[in-house]
Design brief:
Four copies of one chain form a homotetramer. The first copy, chain A, has 348 residues and is of the alpha/beta class. Chain A has helices at residues 14-23, 45-48, 59-62, 84-96, 119-122, 129-136, 148-157, 186-189, 200-211, 254-263, 267-270, 292-295, 327-343, and strands at residues 4-9, 29-36, 66-68, 77-80, 100-103, 141-144, 165-174, 214-215, 220-221, 226-233, 240-248, 281-284, 304-311, 317-323. Chain A has 13 helices and 14 strands. Chain A has a six-stranded parallel sheet, sandwiched between helices. Chain A has a six-stranded mixed sheet with strand order 10-7-11-14-13-12. Chain A has a two-stranded antiparallel sheet with strand order 8-9. In chain A, strand 4 (77-80), helix 4 (84-96) and strand 5 form a beta-alpha-beta unit. In chain A, helix 1 crosses helix 13 (327-343). The longest helix of chain A has 17 residues, at 327-343. Chains in contact: A-B, A-C, A-D, B-C, B-D, C-D. At the A-D interface, helix 12 of A face helix 12 of D.
Chain lengths: 348, 348, 348, 348
C-alpha cells in the first residue's frame, strides 16, 4: 500500500508531540506536514520544539519545516492538536478547504452534526457526515474524539450497553499528563489531590451521553442516561482511573458481566485496524488491578482495563476502568478514528 | 482540675505513637501507662519504640516502662491502639477488670451493644452502655470510634442528617498513613493508585449506617440508607478525601445546604471539650478545596473540611469531604470520645 | 516594648507570602505595609493575593491595602521579597530613601559593601555597613541573606570553621518549594530528579566563601576555600538536603567534631533573638537522619540539622546537612537578620 | 544457532523476576529452569510467584515447575538472583557441580579470584578464572556483576580511565526499585529523601576500585584511586543518578572529554553481543539531562547516560551519570556477562 500522507495541526505542543510519537512507524500514515503557530513557522521541527516525551524525537520528523496552520500545501488528512482557543477557526478553515480534520480538540465535540467517535462504540455515528457536509457546505469534514477521562469511562461501559445503562455515578483519578506542559505545578500535586479540573465534569457527563447514543439515520440521539462525575487530579504520570457505579435496565449475573467485558469486540478489531488493540476491554481478575503505573501502557496504551467488578449496594454493579490518557485518550484515539474512516472508504 | 491518668494499649505501634503524640500536653489527661506486646515489656518506652512521627518523642513518655497489655496497675481509662488480631481479647479483659476502654480498633465497632461514637453526631448512642454492662456483666465498658475513612464521610454528612439521607455513592482517595508502618510499599504507590483496600468498603458502608442511626432508648438502630463505597489508596501522606453523591428526602436549596455545613455545631462544642474543633465542619468556598496536603492539618487535624457543593445529575447534591486520618480518624477521635464521656460523668 | 512596624516588598508572591506568614504574631515586628507590582496596588491584600501556603492567610494582613513598591509611607524596616528582575532598582530606591532593606533577593548579595548575613556565622560582617553608607551615599542600607541551598551548607559548616575549611565537594537535593509558584512543573519532577538548577551552583560556591569569610575592619574577605557544588531538584516539598565532603586544616577526632556541632552557639542565641533556634545546629545520631519531610519543620524551621558524620576516604569527613528552605533559607533568615540589627542598635 | 538453556536461582523474587523478564525472547539463551526456596518448589512458576513487574508474566515461563536451588537437573548456565543470606552456599554448590554461575549477588564480588565483571570495562578480568578453578577445585565457576549504584559510576568513568582516575567524590540519588519488594515503605520515601542505604557506600567504594583495576596476568589489582560515596534514596521508581567530581592524572580539554564519552566502545560492541547497547556511554548535551524518569529506559535500559560535564573548582571535572538499576544494574548486567563469556568460548 502506498503510504498516505498526513499532517498535524499544533504539532509542537504536548498533544502534538504525542501525535508525532504515535505516528512514528505507522503502517498506513506518513507524517509529512507539521503546522504550528506563527512563532514556530519556517523553523525546522526540531528547532521549534522542546521535546518533552520519553525517548528521542523521531528522526524523520525532526527536519520537517513547520508550516502555518493554514490550508494550502497540507495533506488531505490532518490531525488537530490545536489549542481550544484557536481550534474552531483553524479546523473549520481546513474542512472548508476540503481536508479531513481528525480532531482531538474539544471545540466541535458536542456539535449536533459532528461525530464524537470511538470506533469500538459508535462507528455508525459517521453516518452523520453527509448531513455535516450539507449543513456546513464543506467539501471536507470534522470528526472528533472524546476527552481523555471520558474515553476510560465509555470504553469501560461499551460492553454494558446491551444491558441498558440508566444511571452512572463516577469519580476520576486523573494523571498529570492530561494537563499538558507545564500543566500542573508540582507545588499543587506533590503528596496531594486536586479535587477539581475545570470543565471536566461537564465534558464527561455530556460526551458520555453522546458517545453511547444512537444514530437514528437522521440525527445523533444522546443516550437517555443520568451521569454524575467527580473529577480529581492525582499524583500519577499517565493513566486515568475511574470508579463507576452503574444502574442497568437488565441486571446481568456477575459471570455474564465479566464475560461481556472479556468477549467484547467491535469494528476496529473486525477490520484489523493497525492501532486497534486485539481486545479493546481487558478484565483483570486480581483484586487490586488495574493500576495506572502498572497497566496503562500495556497493549500500546490502546486498551481499556477494567477490574473489581462487584455488586453495588445502591445501583447494580460497581467497577473500575483505566485508560492511557495521552494515547487512547488523545493521539491514539484520533489515529484510530482516521484508520476507521480510511478503512470505510470515507477518505477519498 | 486534677489530671486524670490514662493508658495506651499497643503504645509502641504507629497508632499508639499517634496517641502518645496527641495526648502530649492534654489539659485533662495525663499519659502515665503504656502497654505493648511481650517483646517490649519491661523496657523503657524510648527503647522499645522506633519513633516514626514528625517531631521528637514526648520526653515525659520516653522513660515510662512498657507494661504487658493486662489489667492490673493500668489507670481507669485506657485507649486501645491494639492490633485487630489481639484487640478482642485484650479489650474485653480490660472491660471485665473495670476499665473504660476507648478503642480505635475495629473489633467491637459493629457489636450491637457497643457505641460507635462520633461526639458531634451521636453522643446519645452512649445510652446503650447500661445495656452493654448488663449483657456482658462488665464493671467497665468498651466504646469505639470509626474507621479513618468513615469519619470523613460521616462528619461531612452530619449537617445533612436533618434533610434525610437516603442514598450515598462515595469514592475515597486515602492517604498512606492510614496503612500504618511499614504499610504500603513505595513500589506499589509511587506515581500510582491502588484501587483496593481490604475490608474498607464494607467497613465504610456498615459503620456509616450505624453512626448516623438513632438510639431508640432500647437499641441502636442503623440508618436505613443505601451506601456504596469505592476505596482507593493515593500518593498522599495524611488526609483522606471522599467524593460524595447523596440523595436526600428533602432537598434543600444550595444556600441552605452551605449554611447547614457552616452553622453545624454539636455536643463537643457546647461542652467546650478540649480537643473539639471550634467549628466541626468547615465549608471551603474555593473551587478546588479542600486538599489533603494543604488542609488536613488545620484546626489541629480535628475538623472535617467540605467543599465543591453542587447539584448532582443523578442524586440531589455532590460534594467532597476531607479529614485527617490519623488525628480525627484515629487518636484524636478516641481522645474526644473520652473527653465527652468524662464531661458527661460516665467515668466515675 | 512598642511594636516596630515593618513592610514587605513583593508581598503577594510566594516569598512574600512566606514573610507574611513568618511575621504573624512576631513579638517585635508588626507587619503594617505590603508592597507589590502595579497590578496589585490599591487592592486589599486578600484580593490581590492567591494564598498558596498551608493554613489560612493571617487575618490582620488580609485587609491591608497593597502599595506600590516605592518609598513614601513605608515603615523604616522593609523586607524585600521582590523578583530579581526588579530588586536592584527597588531596593536601592528604598535604601536611598533611608530605609533598612533586609533582602532575600540575590541582586546585592555579592556586592563588596553589602553584608551577606547569617547571624550565627558572621554577625561581624555588619561592620561593613558604614562603608556601604559612605560609598553609596545612602541614609538607609541593604543587608542580604543567602540563597536557600547555601544556608544549609554554611550553617552545617559553621561549627567547623575553627578547624580550617579548605575544600568542599557538595551535592544538594533541593525541595520544589525553592522554585516558587508555579515553579517546577509536575511533569518534570514527579518520580524524577532534575539535575540542574540555573545559577544555583555558582551562587552556592561564591556565597559560601563570602559568608564564611572575615571582616578585616576595612573589607569583607572571602574564605580561601575551594567549593564545588552539584545542585539537584528532587520530589520533596520543603527542606534542602546537602551531602558534604570536607577537607580541614586541622582534622579533629570524630567525637570532637560531633561535640563541635552540638555545642555550637552564637550571637542570636546570646542575644536571645525571638526567631533564633535554641540550638542552631542539631546533630542527629540516627543512622538515616536528618530527612526533609520528617525534620525540616522542627524548631520552627530555623535550625540546621546535621547527621551521618563519618570519615571521608578522599577528604577528612563527610556528613549531611538539612535546612528548611523557605523558612531558614528565606523569610526566617531575613527576619532573624533584622532582629540582630535591631538588637545591635543598628536601626535607629 | 541452537538455543542455550539457562536457569535462574531465586527466580520468584524481585531480582529473579527481572531476569525472567529480561531473558524473554533472548536470541541465544532460553530460560528452561527456575529455582527458588523450598516454599515454592514443585509449584508452577505462575502459582509460586506474585508478579510485580509492569506487563504480564512471560507465558513460556509461567508453566515451568519451580525446582529447589540445588544442582541436579539445572542447565550449565545459571543466573543467580538469590538473597545474600543464602547466596554463598547455593552459588558454591552450583560451581562445585560444574555450573557457570553468573551472579548478581554481592557475596563473592570482592573475592580475589572472582571477576567483578563489566564487559565494557574489564573483560580481561575473566583471565582470573583459571586461578579460581585451581584454588577452589571447582569444575564450574562464579562470575559477578557490580552493585546497581556502582554500575552507573563505573560505566560513566570507563571512558576516563585513559586519563588516570585519582580521586572521586560521588553522591547517588537512587531509585526505590533498587531495594526490591516490599522494599522501601512509602511512609519513608514519599516527599522525602532517605540519606542512608546500608552497606551501599562501602560497596561503591570497593567495587569501583576493583572494576577499574587491572588483571596483571596473575591477579586482579585494584585501581589505586580514592573513592568517597554518599548514598541516598529518592522518590524515583527506576534509574540511579550519580553526581561525580573527579581528579585525573592528565586533565583533558572539555571537548576531548566529551569526545571520550561519545566515542567510547568496547568488547561487547565489537563482539556484537545481543544485549550490548550500540553506544555504551551516551553524552547528553542538554543542560538538565540525563534524568531518571525520562532517560533510564532508553536503549533497553542497557546504556549509561552522562551529562553536565563541567570544570570542578576542587578537582578537574564534574558530571552526572545515570543507569537503569534493575536492568543495567542487575539482570541485564548478568546476562551481558554470560553473553561475553559465551562469545569468548569460556562456556563449553
Amino acid at each position: 500500500m502506498q503510504p498516505i500522507e498526513v499532517g498535524v495541526l499544533g504539532a509542537t505542543g504536548m498533544v502534538g508531540q504525542h501525535f508525532v510519537k504515535f505516528l512514528q512507524g505507522h503502517p498506513w500514515f506518513q507524517l509529512t506536514w507539521v503546522g504550528a503557530s506563527e512563532r514556530s513557522t519556517a523553523k525546522k521541527y526540531k528547532d521549534a520544539t522542546t521535546w518533552r516525551l520519553a525517548g528521542a524525537m523521531p528522526a524523520e520528523v525532526a527536519d520537517l519545516t513547520v508550516e502555518e496552520c493554514k490550508p494550502g500545501n497540507a495533506p488531505k488528512i490532518v490531525f488537530s492538536a490545536t489549542d481550544a482557543s484557536v481550534a474552531t477557526e483553524i479546523e473549520q478553515a481546513f474542512a472548508k478547504a476540503g481536508h479531513v480534520v481528525v480532531s482531538n480538540s474539544r471545540n466541535h465535540r458536542m456539535d449536533a452534526d459532528v461525530p464524537l467517535l470511538v470506533p469500538e462504540i459508535n462507528a455508525e455515528h459517521l453516518g452523520i457526515l453527509p448531513k455535516q457536509r450539507e449543513l456546513r457546505g464543506w467539501p471536507g469534514m470534522i470528526v472528533t474524539n472524546p476527552n481523555c477521562s471520558t474515553i476510560a469511562l465509555t470504553m469501560g461501559l461499551a460492553p454494558l450497553k446491551q444491558f441498558g445503562i440508566r444511571k452512572l455515578v463516577v469519580t476520576t483519578l486523573q494523571a498529570i499528563s492530561g494537563a499538558g506542559y507545564p500543566g500542573v505545578p508540582s507545588m499543587d500535586i506533590m503528596g496531594n489531590v486536586i479535587p477539581f479540573i475545570g470543565g471536566e465534569e461537564e465534558k464527561m457527563q455530556q460526551e458520555t451521553q453522546k458517545i453511547l447514543g444512537d444514530f437514528t439515520g437522521g440525527e445523533l440521539r444522546a443516550l437517555h442516561a443520568k451521569v454524575s462525575a467527580h473529577c480529581n487530579r492525582v499524583a500519577v504520570v499517565d493513566g486515568h482511573l475511574v470508579t463507576i457505579s452503574v444502574e442497568l435496565e437488565h441486571k446481568p449475573k456477575h459471570d455474564d458481566l465479566v464475560h461481556a467485558f472479556n468477549s467484547f469486540t467491535a469494528e476496529p478489531q473486525k477490520r484489523n485496524l493497525p492501532s486497534a488493540p486485539n481486545q479493546p476491554v481487558i478484565y483483570m481478575p486480581e483484586k487490586d488491578r488495574p493500576q495506572p503505573r502498572r497497566d496503562a501502557e500495556r497493549e500500546n496504551g490502546m486498551a481499556c482495563f477494567v477490574g473489581r467488578v462487584r455488586e453495588c449496594p445502591v445501583f447494580d454493579y460497581k467497577f473500575i476502568a483505566l485508560a492511557h490518557n495521552t494515547v487512547r485518550g488523545a493521539a491514539g484515539a484520533a489515529v484510530l478514528n482516521a484508520e476507521l474512516m480510511q478503512s470505510m472508504g470515507l477518505i477519498s
